[in-house]
Design goal:
10% strand, 4 strands, two-stranded antiparallel ribbon, single chain, 2 domains, 5 helices, mainly alpha
Length: 157
């Protein structure tokens, strides 16, 4: 009888000799461990991107300039601003879109939903895009925040 490579429990069933993991959860855990480097790199890029986009748009919707509030809120014990806006890829990554300033825009929830449904066209959205750049200090701060978040997730701190 084989043992699961992740949790060590016995693998039972019809095709147990061909399986490495006892469950789908253990299989996903193994895949995540293989890809942890690429996951961490993507998380760093996304954090850089989010900070740059919020800064470029002054945390306001590119179309209607809405922002939920300027007050601080606590989410999972972390203090952050409650801007309420969302980052939107004009051309989705799955369709070959990129994470560059000409393909990313900050939208309120209403305009984001309209953009997802195609009620606001991609060319119309591109008219509202703004260039964004992070300074070296902002990049360092983003890396530190991202590293802390990844460490907390991996080690369940």
């Amino acid at each position: 009888m084989k043992q699961c490579l992740i949790c060590g429990s016995k693998i039972e069933g019809k095709y147990s000799n061909n399986r490495k993991y006892c469950s789908e959860q253990c299989r996903r855990t193994a895949e995540a461990k293989k890809r942890i480097g690429s996951i961490a790199d993507r998380a760093k890029r996304v954090n850089f991107l989010a900070q740059a986009v919020y800064k470029a748009y002054s945390c306001k919707c590119a179309i209607c300039h809405w922002r939920a509030t300027e007050e601080l809120i606590s989410v999972n014990g972390k203090i952050q601003y409650a801007y309420g806006n969302e980052i939107h890829h004009i051309t989705p990554i799955s369709e070959g879109g990129t994470e560059t300033h000409d393909n990313i825009i900050l939208l309120c929830p209403n305009h984001h939903k309209q953009a997802d449904l195609g009620l606001i066209g991609r060319e119309t959205l591109r008219k509202y895009t703004k260039p964004f750049i992070l300074t070296a200090e902002e990049k360092d701060r983003a890396i530190a925040q991202c590293t802390d978040a990844i460490t907390a997730l991996i080690f369940e701190v």
